[in-house]
Amino acid sequence: MKKTSLKFLFSGMVGALVLTSCTDLEVNEKDSIVIESTGDGFTAGNPTELLNGLYNDLGFYNDQANLYSLGQHPSGEMIPPTRGVDWGDNGVWRTLHAHTWDATHPQILNAWNTLNSRSYRCEQLLASNPSAVQAAETKALRALFMHHVMDLWGQVPRRTVDQGVEALPMVMTRSEAFDFIVKDLEEALPNLPKLGPAPINARASKAMANTLLARLYLNKAVYKSAKPEGPYTFDKADMDKVVAYCNAVAADGFALDADFFNPFTAGASTDKIFTDLQGTPRNRWMMTMHYDQGGFPAERDGPWNGFTTLAEFYEKFEANDNRRFKEVGFNPGYGGVHKGFLIGPQFREDKTPIIDSRSKEPLVFTKDVPLAGAATNKGIRAIKYHPADFGKYLILRYSDVYLMKAEAMMRGGDAAGALKMINDLRTMRKATPLASLTDEAMWKERGYELYWEGIARTDEVRFGKFNRQYQDIVNLEPYTVLFPIPSTAIASNTNLTQNAGY
To answer: Which SUPFAM superfamilies does the UniProt entry name for this protein (predicted)?
Structure first.
């Protein structure tokens, strides 16, 4: 027997998985996947090791690039200003903000490769004689990865382990992918473990699957639409399913956390449905804090002085809304970095002003921030994960479930019930209750609660807000609700068809 390998090609790196077989075959590239095979069969791996590997690799959610960048930068919540040569990177960040990306964009390619390679690893695991519970967890993870591909690109390639090297991966339409993903989750649910809230919840569970099903049905009108840009028609039966799935999550013990920032700490929280396992959310504060707000343990290089929010988004918050700001205090090693939005003068732990080492002036964060040519102090910074008490990265959390239920109730005709839910949340967050509930108000509430969590683009598309004018957006064309299929994927798999407009 000779060892062979299946390799997933990334921009600048290669990940390899080992297979075994008996005869030599030619190496061919198909859909950014190169298969080196010496036989016509598939040799199963160890399902426990394969599943642990999938969980260990969830750290890609922590990255400030790739999947996160596609879900966040094209929205009106975040702007990636270039400061001199810093964050220039050949325009990769600016084009995401301006909606001027193309099929060669590296973040688009890397996200595509990351998600599709992990989906194939799920295929391998399912063909490796897993237990019923392991198979259920694997299907839930495959659904998680595939739902991102469906959401971002509208087409989902799938390669199965029984395909020969000459076979191109089949490609599901958006509608077909929706049905496949829902089927995966429904088949997984009976055998998934019932897990309640925990400081680290890094295993697929019934609550995780029910959360994904709620998200899928809430966006079903988008995914089943004849036109990706809409208009969308939300069916009451689908909204009723959203409510039922959300209720199932609550029945497992999950609930809103009265302390808005507590779910992002290492402590226990009723909000934590599904978390990363190995990594830390370090990038979330490093990508936004100023260079001179450093001094943290093991971070001698200091933060990166990158992304900020837009004044338009910040000014939507009421002054008393506790999602906007929480004073942390002046902690040794952590300066005067508080939680929420950082604006105005910044201080060190001894309460003296921070001096910008480049401008030699006191560091004062401003509301205004240009997309290019920004001074080092421009832009309001956002801190949810704090370097003093951070926990694992939250991939799915109950606040999203709560708001999905309220939105589904509103769209399904129960405006009074939805309004009560939103006002209960706003009261908890010290915001003024609303007299009535509109699509606009619901969309804003999701922003208040879920800002900078990587789902802003999906929300904007569903609410018809994605192609609106906000700071520095250049391309308002409706086709940008989908990203282009990477050009390398198109070249290697003729079953893929480039999305309209690209």
So the answer is: TPR-like
Among 106, 137, 142, smallest CA distance to 121 is for 142
What lies within 8 Å, CB to CB, of 346 at 6+ separation is: 290, 293, 335, 336, 337, 353, 354, 363, 364, 365
299 contacts: CB under 8 Å, gap ≥ 6: 282, 286, 387
Contacts of 234 (CB under 8 A, 6+ apart): 221, 411, 412
Residue 248 amino acid letter: A
Single-letter residue type at 137: E
Give this prediction's pTM.
Answer: 0.91
Q: What is the 3-state secondary structure (H, E, C) of 264-327?
A: HECCCCCCEEEECCCCCCHHHHHCCCCHHHCCCCCCCCCCCCCCEECHHHHCCCCCCCCCCEEC
Report the run of H or E that residue 220 belongs to, with start and end: helix 220-223
Q: How far apart are CA 12 and CA 73, in angstroms?
A: 23
Q: CB–CB of 485/108 below 8 Å? A: no
DSSP code string of 391-422: -SPEEEEHHHHHHHHHHHHHHTT-HHHHHHHH
For 258, which DSSP code? S
Give whole-number Cα distances, 179 to 173, 176, 225, 489, in Å. 10, 5, 14, 23
Q: Which residue in the block uniquely carries the two structure tokens 């922003």?
A: 447
374: left (phi over 0), alpha (psi -120 to 50) or beta: beta
The total of other beta-carbon atoms located within 10 Å of residue 378's CB is 19
Gyration radius of the chain over CA positions: 23
Distance CA 475, CA 150 (A): 22
Q: Tell me the DSSP string of 4-61.
A: EEEEEE-SS-EEEEEEEESS----EEETTEEE--SSSS-----HHHHHHHHHHGGGGG
Express each pLDDT in 137-162 by its tens digit. Answer: 999 999 999 999 999 999 999 999 99
Helical (H) or strand (E) element with 340: strand 339-342
Query: For residue 348, what are its two tokens?
Result: 């060190």
Provide the pLDDT for residue 351.
Answer: 83
Return all residues near 7 (Cβ < 8 A) that are at least 6 apart: 14, 15, 16, 17, 33, 34, 35, 36
Task: Tell which residue, 179, 138, 140, has the closest CA to residue 161.
Answer: 138
Torsion region of 355: left, alpha or beta (phi above 0 gives left; psi -120 to 50 gives alpha)? beta
At position 58, the amino acid (one-letter code) is L
Sequence ranges of the domains in the chain: 282-386
For residue 72, what are the contacts with CB-CB under 8 A and spacing of at least 6?
78, 452, 454, 456, 457
What's the CA gap between 476 and 347, in Å, rounded? Answer: 40
Indicate if the alpha-carbon torsion angle 313, 317, 321, 327 is positive or negative. positive
